[in-house]
């Protein structure tokens, strides 16, 4: 079903697996849509260098657990890619966030050795963004120069609970993040996937005062 839906899109697809994916099945069915995934389900990672920002896609999923893990090969590959990219800004896409974000339910199943990625953030000023899934909520933080964000779920959402570790989810409106390269700037914005009324044009006569009183 995923291949059928995604295959109807008319732009390039850059995919990475998450903790709910069987890597072999993921590669078998989605490789035709994203040949950059390669042929080894245990080593799915690739770079896209077609834009003003270098895009690096890595697999943080680990069979048998919801927690994430970055292999030695992945860390070495990232290091080489960042060396090769020089001063060109780089953005990483991965499933698990590499550090705790204060969500009591999700922090225990983040990337267990994410500190190794954070060490690369410290070494390479060009690494300025890391986008993750996993948490089913829009959450943002910053580590050194890098903005780190988890994105909303496209089906269900996970509430941000400070202390309650029970596995809650809800059906608040699904959404996604859209990204644009505007000149030298990377811009991200949230886009709702729910049905809603509008859009309407503002009435300029009521949108702001026209005279000082």
Automatic annotation (TrEMBL):
InterPro entries: Calcineurin-like_PHP, CNP_phosphodiesterase-III, GpdQ_beta-strand, GpdQ_catalytic, Metallo-depent_PP-like
EC code(s) of this entry: 3.1.4.17
Coiled-coil ranges per UniProt: none
Enzyme class name: hydrolase
Keyword Membrane: no
Pfam families assigned to the protein according to its UniProt record, in alphabetical order: Metallophos (PF00149)
Molecular function GO labels: 3',5'-cyclic-nucleotide phosphodiesterase activity; metal ion binding
Domain Calcineurin-like phosphoesterase per the UniProt entry, residue ranges: 6-137
Key words of the record: Hydrolase, Iron, Metal-binding
Statement: the UniProt record of this protein carries the keyword Cytoplasm: no
Annotated family: Belongs to the cyclic nucleotide phosphodiesterase class-III family.
PANTHER family in the record: CYCLIC NUCLEOTIDE PHOSPHODIESTERASE CBUA0032-RELATED, PHOSPHOHYDROLASE
Protein name: 3',5'-cyclic-nucleotide phosphodiesterase
Gene that specifies this protein: cpdA_2
């Amino acid at each position: 079903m995923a291949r059928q839906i995604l295959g109807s899109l008319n732009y390039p697809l850059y995919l990475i697996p998450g903790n709910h994916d069987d890597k072999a099945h993921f590669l078998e069915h989605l490789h035709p849509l994203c040949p950059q995934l390669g042929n080894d389900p245990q080593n799915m990672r690739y770079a896209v260098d077609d834009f003003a920002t270098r895009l690096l896609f890595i697999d943080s999923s680990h069979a048998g657990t919801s927690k994430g893990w970055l292999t030695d090969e992945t860390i070495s590959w990232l290091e080489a890619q960042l060396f090769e990219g020089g001063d060109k800004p780089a953005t990483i896409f991965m499933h698990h966030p590499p550090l705790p974000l204060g969500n009591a339910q999700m922090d225990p199943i983040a990337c267990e050795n994410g500190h190794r990625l954070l060490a690369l953030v410290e070494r390479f000023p060009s690494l300025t963004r890391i986008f993750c899934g996993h948490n089913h909520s829009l959450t943002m933080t910053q580590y050194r120069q890098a903005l780190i964000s988890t994105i909303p779920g496209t089906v269900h959402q996970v509430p941000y609970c400070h202390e309650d570790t029970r596995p809650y989810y809800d059906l608040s409106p699904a959404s996604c993040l859209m990204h644009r390269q505007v000149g030298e700037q990377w811009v991200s914005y949230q886009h709702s996937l729910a049905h809603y009324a509008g859009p309407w044009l503002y009435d300029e006569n009521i949108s702001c005062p026209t005279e000082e009183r």
